[in-house]
Amino acid sequence: MLPWKACEIGDHIDDVQTPALMLDLDAFERNLTKLMGHAKGVRVRPHAKSHKCPEIARRQIELGAIGICCQKLSEAAVFAQHGIKDILLTNQVVGAQKLQRLAQLAQTIRLGVLVDDLAQIQALGQAMAGQRHRLDVYIEIEVGAKRCGAPAQTAGELAQAIASHRQLNFAGLQCYHGAAQHLRAPDARAGAIANAAQVARQAVKAVQAAGFPAPLVTGAGTGTFWYERDSGVYAEVQAGSYALMDRDYADNTAGPQDVRFEHALWIKTSVTSVAQDNVVIVDAGLKSLSVDSGMPGVADYDAFAYLRASDEHGVIGCPANQRPQLGQWLSLIPGHCDPTVNLYDDLIVVQQNKVVDIWPIAARGANL
Fold this sequence. Notes:
Layout: E1 20-24, H1 25-37, E2 43-44, H2 54-62, E3 68-70, H3 73-81, E4 86-89, H4 96-105, E5 110-115, H5 118-128, E6 135-140, H6 155-163, E7 168-174, H7 186-209, E8 216-219, H8 225-229, E9 236-237, H9 247-250, E10 265-273, E11 279-282, E12 297-298, E13 305-309, E14 314-317, E15 329-333, H10 337-341, E16 346-351, E17 354-360
Parallel strand pairs: 1-16, 2-9, 3-4, 4-5, 5-6, 6-7, 7-8, 8-9
Antiparallel strand pairs: 1-10, 10-11, 10-15, 11-14, 12-15, 13-14, 16-17
Helix pairs in contact: 4-5, 6-7
C-alpha cells in the first residue's frame, strides 16, 4: 500500500504526482456511446480485461451492455463482488480448486465459461454436480488465431457432451479472432473476419446437425467488430479496448467501414533529467507502462519519440528547439492498454483539467 495517493479529487491536473494513469472522462464517455450506437442489433458484452475496473463495467452496462467478459476466474470473482451479475469467462478453466471455485461463483451470478475439449466438459460436469444453478458453457472454435479452439466440425459432438450433464447449459459458440485485431490493412482484417465467419457458420451447422437449435455466436474485438456485426452469423460482440484505446490500435490503417475511437487513457509522466543531449528522461519506465506492443506515443508532440525504457526511466528523443524543461509533464499513449492498466491501483479521472474521480482498478493482478 502506498503511503500517499497521486492526487485527490478536486486537484488540478498539474498537481497530479507522476507517473500516474489518467482517464479523459469526456473521451471515454464518447467511446462508450459510440460503440453502443454502432452495435445495430447485436448484443454488446465488453471485455473487462482491458480495464479491470468495476466502475467502467457498471457504466458500460448502464448504456446497454448485457454483461461483461473476463479472462481469468479471479478477475470474474472481483467483478462479481462489485455487483456485476452476468459474466462470460472467455477462457478454459483447469484444476480441481479452480473448478470448485467456478462452480461456487456460478451460484451467485450468471456465469459462462469456454471449452474446446471433451475432458474439460467432463471435469465441469463433475464440479457442477449437485449445484443448484447451472453453468453456461460455450464451445470455443478455432477461427484463425491458432491459439485455443476446437475444429468447427467437432462442435456437434461437444454440444452433445455438454447437454449430457444436468448442470451444464450449452450456451453458444465463442468465435473470437484475436490476431485479426491488429492486422494493419483494412482488407487484411476484413478477409480474416470473413474467413472466421465462414468457420463459425460451419460450427453452427455442425451443432444443428446434432439436433440443437442455431446457437448464439459471440466474439469480435475493437479492431474488427463491424465486420462480425454485419456477417449475419455473430449475435454478440466482445470489444474491450475501445473504452480506453491505445497506440497499437491507432496504428491500424482505417478503412471506409472502420469505427475509430479516441485515446481516453494516458500516462502522466514528468521530465526528471535533461543532462543528456537530444533526449530527456521521464519517470515512466517499464514499471509504469507495457512495451509488448511497442513504445508509447507522446501526445501533442509529433516530433518526440519514446526511444527506450528501463525499470523506472523512459528516454524521449526531441528536437533541440522543443526540448521540455526539467519538471515539465508529458502525456504518453500506451502501446497496449491491457497490461499497462494492470500496473496501477487507481485510474485518475480528469475533466476540464480537474480530477473529478478516482476509480480503483479492483481486479489488478487477478491472474488466477
